[in-house]
């Protein structure tokens, strides 16, 4: 399930080249890094295990 980023939201800068592809937190959602660029895919953060 994906959610849209807020209108006008700017993706974070790219992580260092050594960071593998995957989901990374951005505010209150996760955003997918494909290994070379941020994609438009977002997902809710996983609930904390407290």
- Tell me about the biggest sheet? 3 strands, antiparallel
Number of DSSP helices? 0
Low-pLDDT sequence parts: none
Task: Describe the strand arrangement of the main beta sheet, using strand numbers.
Answer: 1-2-3
Average pLDDT rating: 79
Q: Which structural class do you get from the secondary structure elements?
A: mainly beta
Got a strand count? 3
Distance between the termini: 24 Å
Overall body shape:
globular
Query: Percentage of helical residues?
Result: under 10%
Order of helices and strands: EEE
Beta-strand proportion: 25-35%
In angstroms, what is the radius of gyration?
Answer: 11 Å
Description:
- A hairpin with a 4-residue loop joins strand 2 (29-33) and strand 3.
- The protein is globular, with a radius of gyration of 11 Å.
- It has 50 residues and is mostly beta strands.
- The protein has a three-stranded antiparallel β-sheet with strand order 1-2-3, with no helix packed on it.
- The N and C termini lie far apart (24 Å).
- The chain has no helices and three strands.
Secondary structure elements and pairings:
Elements: E1 22-26, E2 29-33, E3 38-44
Antiparallel strand pairs: 1-2, 2-3
Short description:
The chain is 0% helix and 34% strand.
Task: Please give a handful of descriptors for the protein shown.
50 residues, mainly beta, 3-stranded antiparallel β-sheet
């Amino acid at each position: 399930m994906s959610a849209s980023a807020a209108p006008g939201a700017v993706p974070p800068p790219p992580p260092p080249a050594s960071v593998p592809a995957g989901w990374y937190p951005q505010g209150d959602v996760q955003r997918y890094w494909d290994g070379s660029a941020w994609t438009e895919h977002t997902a809710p953060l996983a609930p904390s295990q407290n």
